Amino acid sequence: MSNRIVELEILRYNPETDEEPKFQTFSVPCAEDWVVLDAINYIKDELDRTLSYRWSCHMAVCGSCGMMINGEPMLSCKSFLRDLPDRIRVEPLTNFPIERDLVVVMDDFMDKLDSVKPFLIPREEKTVDEGEFLQTPAQLSKFKQYTLCINCTLCYAACPQYAHNEGFVGPAALALAHRYNLDSRDVGRSARADVVASNAGIWECSFVGACSEVCPHGVDPAAAIQQTKIASSVDYFRDMLIPGRRS
Ligand code: FES
Fold first, then answer.
1. Which tens digits make up the pLDDT trace of 113-136?
2. Could you give the 3-state DSSP secondary structure of residue 98?
């Protein structure tokens, strides 16, 4: 443990007793190599056992520890205290309702994720005995980047479109739809188009790019959405030239 004391201002909210959220400050003695999540765990273990927040892996894999740290959406398990000032403001991810303290309600995101059919839709089903759907390394490389999403929803907290239009399908869900649309084993592009190519889908994105800036795994959802816009436009003109080609 170093001699450094960090002041953590944490937004607290208990819907059963509080009229509105308010900040509570904790002084935390920190080790050199701690991340913000370690400091929050210290508060939970030593100072206030009622503090609520989500985390699981502590290694930027599970995607559950997203928070606003000094106003930026970040994974608290990937945010080193040595890179932050002595006073740190920690809030729940913005653009989501607060369930309690740093825990947000994820229902809207889960519904949107579900709506883009984020799974392989093969041309024909196969039994396990019939083997895998094979793919070459070149085919995999077309979409591999988009498989790295951990559903942390930092991109939704950063997205100005989602902030103003809660109907927007949003960055992670659209990037995941693109991931499956690019997969050589998948034929579900038309089935996803009703949601993906709707006004609430790709066309709502104004390409600010904040989603890609905060993504902890470099998924680049902004690029996925722009690529989908191009593919969707090509579909539109092809459908005009060859009516019924996809039926
Ligand atoms: S605890 Fe799993 S991503 Fe941070």
1. 999 999 999 999 999 999 999 999
2. strand
